[in-house]
Structure formats: structure tokens, C-alpha cells
TrEMBL record:
Keyword terms of this UniProt record: Membrane, Transmembrane, Transmembrane helix
Biased composition (Basic and acidic residues): 473-483
Keyword Transmembrane helix among UniProt keywords: yes
SUPFAM superfamilies, sorted: E set domains, Oxidoreductase molybdopterin-binding domain
Transmembrane segments: 65-87, 94-111, 117-137, 157-178
Protein name: Molybdopterin-dependent oxidoreductase
The keyword Cell division belongs to this UniProt entry's keyword annotation: no
Domain Oxidoreductase molybdopterin-binding as annotated: residue spans: 224-377
Originating species: Salininema proteolyticum
Region (Disordered): 473-498
Amino acid sequence: MRPKICGGLAGVACGGAAVAVGHLAAMAFAREASPVLAVAAVVVDATPEPVKHFAIETFGIYDKVVLLAGIAVILAGLSILVGILALTHPVAGPAALLAMGVVGAAAALSRPASEPWWALPSVAGTAAAMFVFIYLYRPAAPVSEGGPGTTVDRRKLLIAGAGVGAAGVAGGLLSTAFTPDGGRPQVRLPDPASTAADHKTFTDPGIAPFHTPNADFYRVDTALTVPRLDIADYRLRIGGRVDNPLEFEYRDLLDMRLIERDLTLTCVSNQVGGTLVGNARWLGVPLEDLLALARPHEGADQVVGHSADGWTCGTPTSVCIDGRDAILAVAMNGEPLPYEHGFPVRMIVPGLYGYCSATKWLVELELSTFEDFDAYWVRRGWAPTAPVKVSSRIDTPKPLAELSAGTRTVAGVAWAQQRGIRGVRVRVDDGPWTATELAPVMGTDTWRQWRWQWDATPGRHRLEVLAVTHDDETQTAERKDTFPDGSTGRHSLVVTVR
Ligand SMILES: Nc1nc2c(c(=O)[nH]1)N[C@H]1C(S)=C(S)[C@@H](COP(=O)(O)O)O[C@H]1N2
Ligand SMILES: [Mo]
């Protein structure tokens, strides 16, 4: 093997040791203290809004995987360069490793929930990498190149490679095996004081089911690792501008009046025809009950939700107490909240997009004002609050599908939380609008399934849908981007009939 290749590989072994050992050490305390995850979290928070917007729209739910893969590629590239450089300038190795350690520690310490000892995993990673460096790099025989240089022994490179690989695998296995369950398997859900009515729903193939199964429910958040809170030491604080600050344990919340409701949650980043929307049956404590106990001050017009990972969300106090089913949810579709969807407690407010209403892993409600506090996405230019816009989607047929001529089902869902869907219309090739059949849904806060039997004739056809709300808003055709308060425009697609 050529010396430079050896140098590059040795660099990767040192960088890999730093990452693997740093991550492994973090497993013992707090996963968020892992140097790679902390750096990635800092990148997420520091990314300019247009880039983040692009990432969510391009990679959707895979945005985090793409980010971590990007960081891995950059790290590997730098490690190779430093590894080669260290052959002629040995001091470059320890200097780069030290810099890596400082960056990792600083990133971990900068996280909102950090503790001073969150620097330790980075220190451990750097120490391990230094050890690998000293093991691998030996001063070269003076005859070889002239100046002071180093060489890397191939046999040691193999040993170090195997060692780092094993540490990496062990870290991976350990982090899976030691992921705490937070007591979720032991949760027994109480019966609700009142439950949403059951009604007939459409089950035509291809249409979104009325209740989105938890496993299929979209996930949007800034968390690189899903927080795992433990119900044993869970506390919900209600404070800020209130007469009566409160603290609840998880059990206290389950003992309060619980209501169960079908509510459709929508992301402001959902594009026309997009999938960042889902409907679930949520069980939770009415927010008005909690706020009545805490007694907000006059003028405290914003409820700030704080997540365990430091994310924040601002909701108008008025919508939390205006009689709508705004809740702190503890269960989703009959199960304790899944970890990804905010276990043990999250907020759900019908009618507002998730970024300004749906804090997951909720640990504090702080009564504040819109004047005093900008929540996470508001600081990045999104609207201080945003009601969900009327939307409709064609689920079947799929875009560019090939169908045979005859009677074909065109179907999908439409939503306008808090106002409700009165009608859904479709048209073919800019022809006349036709009313569709609607599933019999009570209430205004869920999406409504619609379907229409189409007499499909051969050729290429464009299908288009629009919804009308109970308060008579007809969905506009005007296309508007999701930033800063949600998209508008009508979903349409082209199919070929044979
Ligand atoms: N803690 C926390 N809660 C959060 C977010 C987040 O990034 N962190 N994202 C919000 C956004 S933008 C949306 S659309 C909803 C999505 O909820 P879901 O992932 O359960 O579908 O959660 C909201 N709650
Ligand atoms: Mo969102």
C-alpha cells in the first residue's frame, strides 16, 4: 500500500475512534451529548431558513438522515486529508483531533438542555483518537524523505481499523439495547370522560384511511434522536404570567378529566397534494381545564410550549380556551403516545398548523406575550401563528397512473380544521365541476374522505380537486408557497386511460 493511502486510512481510523468512543460515552449519560449528534443539532438550528425549507421539501422525512450522512462524508474527507498531512507534519494530527474535540464539546454545551458534563463524551472521544494516533504514527527513518516525517505501519493499521470498527458496532448495538423505554409499556390508559363518535368511513383501495395508523403518521421535528422521557420523573410545569404556577406528574394528568377526539394535524410545510397531514384519535386533558387552574394574567396572549429538547412553540392563549378541543394529549389511536409523536405528553390544537400548536415531549407551558417571545420557527421567519388553510388531495389514482377505460374511483381527503368541509368537487380536463360523495363525518376538526365514480374514456386526462368549507370558502386555485404561513393551490394530476 502506498504511504499516502496508509496515511488517509490512519486518519479515518483516528476520526472514527473519536466519533465512536464519543458516541459510546454519551450513551452512558445523555444521548444528546454525543459529539456528532450535538454538532448535527447545531447545524439544524443554525441553517438559514431557505436551506432548511429546501431540505424539508426535497428530502421530507429523510432530512435528518441526509444531514447525518453529509456530516459523516465531510468528517471522513477531513480525516483523510489530515491523515495524509500528518505524514509530513506530524503535529497536524493531534491539532486536528483537539480541534474536533473542542467543536464537539462546544456543540454539546450549547444545546438548550445541556449540563456541564455533556463535554465529557467529546473529551473521551478525543483521548481515544489521540491514543490511536500515537499507536499508528511512528517517526520515519531519516533516510526515507529527508525531513522529519512519520510512517504508518500496515499491520497496526489493520488492528486499529478492526478496533475502531468493533467500537462502532458496539456503540450501535448498545445504543439500541440501552434505549430507555421511559415506562411506556407499563402505562394503563384511563377511560375518557367523553369520546368521539364512530361513523362510517371509506375504505376504497388507495384512499387515505380515516384514522392514520400511528406507524404511518407523518413525523416532522428538529430532534435528531427521538427524546425518551421517563414518566417516573416526568414533570409538566405551568408558569410564566400566571397567578398560580403549577406542576404535574404524569399520573396527575391521567387522573384529570380526559376527552378523546378525532383531530387532523397538518404541517405548515405540507405542499399542495402533500403527505404531511394525518388524522388520529387523541386522548388528553383539555387545556382550558389546566389554564383555569393556573389563572393566566390579563394580557398574557401567548402560551409557549417548551419541549424537553429545547424546541419552542407559541399558541394564542385565546384558542386554548375558546371552547375548541385543545388538549394535552397522552394517547394516539388508543395507545400511549409513540415516542416519535411526543411521549409522554404533547399539545394538540385543532385549526392551527403543528409548528405553532403541537409541541411534542412537552415539559412546560409558559404564559407569555407575542410581544415578549418568538418561538423556534417564528425566529426563522414563519408567521407568529397560522390557521390551517382549506386543502384537498387526490389519493387515487396516482399521478401518471395508467388505467383501463370504464368506471374508475377517484378519491381522496379534504380538510379545513375548525370550519369543516361541506363539499368537494372534481373536474376532468377543465370541464364542469362535479360534486363528489363525502364520508359522513360529524364535526369540523377532521379531514373528510371524498370519492367519485369517473367514467374514464381513453386518452390523457387531467384530474383536479377543490374543497368548499362550511363557512363557504371555495378553495383557491392561486398557488402560494408554504412559507411563511402555509400553501394554497389546487391539487391536480395527469393519468392515461387505455
Ligand atoms: N418538540 C417538538 N415538537 C414539535 C416539533 C418539533 O420540532 N419539536 N415540530 C412541530 C411540527 S412543525 C409539526 S407539523 C408537528 C408534527 O407532529 P408529528 O411529528 O407527530 O406528526 O409537531 C410539532 N411539534
Ligand atoms: Mo410542521
